[in-house]
Amino acid sequence: MPFRWPVTPSIVRLLVFTSASALFLVSEAQADPSAPPAAASGFYVGGHVGYLFGTGTATFADPVPGATAGGTTAYGAFAGGVQAGYEHYFPSRWMLGLEADMSFPSAEDLAQVLSYRATGTASANQQLEYLASLRARVGYVIDRWTPFVSGGIAWASVRNERIDLTTGNDDATPSNVRVGYALGAGLDYRLDARWTARAEYLYTSLPLAGFSFAQPSRYDSLYDLHRLRVGLNYKFGAGETRGDDRPDRGFGSWEIHGQTTFIFQGYPPMNAAYSGANSLPPEGQSRQTWTVSAFLGMRLWQGGELYYNPELLQGFGVADTTGAGGYPNGEAQKSNFPYPRYNTSRLFLRQEIGLGGERETVESDYGQLSGERDGSRVTLQVGKYSVKDIFDGNAYAEDPRLDFLNWSIWASGAFDYPADRLGLTWGLTAELNRPSFAVRAGYFLVPFESNANTLDTALFVRGGYVGELELRYQPFGRTGSFRLGTWLNSTFAGSYGEAVRLAGLTPGLTANDTIAQTRQGRTKYGFYLNFDQELSDSVGLFGRFSWNDGRTEIMSFTDIDSSVSLGLSIKGTPWGRPDDRLGVAGAVNQISGPHAGYLAAGGLGPLVGDGALTYAAENVFEAYYAFQIAKGIVATADYQFLANPAYNAVRGPVNGFSGRLSARF
After folding, report:
1. In the prediction, which pLDDT does 249 show?
2. Tally of CB atoms within 10 A around 222
3. In whole angstroms, what is the distance from residue 554 CA to residue 562 CA?
4. How far, in Å, are 90, 181, 388, 535 from residue 74 at the CA level?
5. Radius of gyration of the chain (CA)
6. What is the pTM of this model?
7. Across-strand partners of 296?
8. Quick check: 310 pLDDT over 90?
9. Are residues 26 and 55 in contact, defined by beta-carbon separation less than 8 angstroms?
10. Phi/psi of residue 645, each to 5°?
11. Which of 33, 131, 356, 561 has a Cα at 20 to 30 A from 484?
12. Dihedral of CA 204/208/211/217: which sign?
């Protein structure tokens, strides 16, 4: 029997949640150019990112046909994680410490597959859930630097999977733990009294061990793994770190913010005449999602800023993030992860060019360095980020970590903005800001095909083009804004109408079977209208209308071809809770005739597809109350009602209940 470690996803989530929350206890940190801070003993927590690589030697024995496959293959993936420890500094400058760490492979497809072997009748693989160690550290202080060596026990959670190539049956097992050892060396650099930067190398050996499947087959493997990583540590109890308070501190000044959000969501049994591959299960279901992320910004030169947003993602949406066009959880990523996965969610360069006008004070925020800027300016941004970071913003409904959860309320539902399955892409944006208006335009990479995680790099042959005009005004002294956005995607996409026609010509096939045959270079276009208006010191009104042509596949967002939403956001000032929020909103989502015909013929979209369709508009109602527990920590209760989910009149309604705990630092 393989050694099994009592570590579940819930325990891992608790450990990482605790460490990550502690890491971001300070909402802003800036390097102090004064004398080197003294090395201080104490506890610390931190995060790291890097590259995990090595080799795996495996043998897969399938004795029924008498087949065996073996060999050594290379492994490589980006990884990120957390660490925590204690270090003691002696008067002689020697340091002695103890540290525990956990690293998680990236969210990219196949990043977790450590090794793979196949015979003529079956294949087997081992997948990495996490890699951890508990190590002693010994170092020596040299000015701001502390070189160190480390060593100790290591363990990895791996999942074993066997696929019968003759029947397609999948024999997947719960994770079990492999134990080995880790050795490494690194270099710490004290940025100030509390923050330390680190570069580190770790070698991990997982010796030979075997696993027996339920079928009479066995998988034996050993691994030699290497980690090259960089990170930041925050030390408790050290001195203040703010340095001077100038809004613009020049080259090298940096700030860090973080957030963590946990959402539990479920719904009771509902009516359903039938169900399909992308349906909400009629018996009801509950699931959870969790994210933790940091946002680091550094000022490079006058107007130039670099931003990096590492993130850990874990959890599942109900029905594996399918079942409704207006899906009820904005944090439910379309890739589902039982254990945390690392993702570089944002990595971009921003350049602001001042054009004069009254100077504005900018507060430090998630994705924004503090300082001052011209009221009139041009902003260029290039790198990896979300199209929604720049376009389709709204003062009251834009962030499912803080306000509304439903996709068709926090975004323009018919805006099929370019993105991978995690809602991110690479692109370039140019923006002109004046006090009374802004004009924005951008070009972005699109998925290789519908709902794919791989982006199409045929630059300017395929891609997404987005433009937006924003008007700002103050009727009766109340702030308001209006946005008109247009977009066009040039993609490798299928046609709904052609897929239905081909399915009709071939008995036994559905439109989902034939959609791939219709894929070619096509364009999809649409627009959105978006407004927010302050009605009083406590109440804000918002709304959106969006439309797309509805002829070709949805590539990135959700299965909506037209949508209208309207809602109110109310501060808790009237009842003595000014930092609380009450939100109420509704949305009506529809799809085009060709799109409805495709779903009725058995087609599947990124989120919907019941196998058949009795069409009706999808109606959404959402209400939430966000209660501030302490500064930066908010608990939210949310209710949603979905009539005709996935545009099907013979399914639903759905009553969804959610609890959200969010912390920002």
Report:
1. 59
2. 18
3. 12
4. 42, 20, 37, 60
5. 26
6. 0.90
7. 256, 308
8. yes
9. no
10. -60, 140
11. 356
12. positive
**Helix (H/G/I), strand (E/B), else coil: 519:** coil
Rounded Cα–Cα distance for residues 253 and 192 (Å)? 12
Q: Whose CA is closest to 608, among 659, 565, 656, 642? A: 642
Using a pLDDT cut of 70, give the percent of the chain over it: 92
Coarse DSSP helix, strand, coil percentages of the chain, rounded to the nearest 5 percent: 10, 55, 35
How many residues comprise the chain? 665
Own/partner pairs, 86-90, CB within 8 angstroms, 24+ separation? 86/41, 86/42, 86/43, 86/44, 87/41, 87/42, 87/44, 87/137, 87/139, 88/41, 89/39, 89/40, 89/41, 89/141
Please work out, in degrees rounded to the nearest 5, the angle formed at the alpha carbon of residue 480 by the alpha carbons of 474 and 484: 125
Strand positions, DSSP E, 330-479: 337-354, 359-362, 371-374, 377-385, 425-434, 437-444, 463-473
Sequence-distant (≥ 6) Cβ neighbours of residue 8 within 8 angstroms: none
Q: Which two tokens stand for residue 44?
A: 């610390």
The per-residue pLDDT for range 76-103, each reduced to its tens digit, is 999 999 999 999 999 999 999 999 999 9
How remote is the C-alpha of 641 from its chain's centroid?
Answer: 25
Helix and strand numbers (H, E) in the chain are 5, 28
Alpha carbons 470 and 432: distance in angstroms, whole number: 10
Q: Is the dihedral of CA 74, 80, 84, 88 positive or negative?
A: positive
The two three-digit tokens of residue 521, written as one number: 């270079």
Q: What is the largest CA-CA distance in the chain?
A: 84
For position 18, what pLDDT does the model report? 44
Residue 33 predicted with pLDDT over 50? no
Amino acid at 139: G
Which string of b and e fits 41-71 if b means at least 16 CB within 10 Å?
A: eeebbbbbbbebbbbbebbbbbeeeeeebee
Is the distance from CB of 599 to CB of 605 less than 8 angstroms? yes
Place of tokens 């009602």: 641
> Model confidence over 552-597: pLDDT tens digits?
999 999 999 999 999 999 999 999 999 999 999 999 999 999 999 9
DSSP state of 573: G
Nearest to 102 by CA among 5, 25, 3: 5
Which residue spans within 174-284 are E strands per DSSP? 176-190, 195-212, 218-235, 254-267
What residue ranges define each of the domains in the chain, with the CATH number in brackets? 9-235 (2.40.160), 315-340+377-664 (2.40.160)
Q: Nearest-5° angle of CA 495, CA 499, CA 502?
A: 140
- Please, what is the angle between helix 496-505 and helix 593-600, to 10°? 40
DSSP bridge partners of 449 = none
Q: Report the alpha-carbon distance of residue 311 to residue 49 in Å, rounded.
A: 10
Contacts of residue 113, defined as CB under 8 A and 6 or more positions apart, other chains included, come to 75, 125, 126, 127, 128
CA dihedral 181, 185, 191, 194 (to 10 degrees): 30
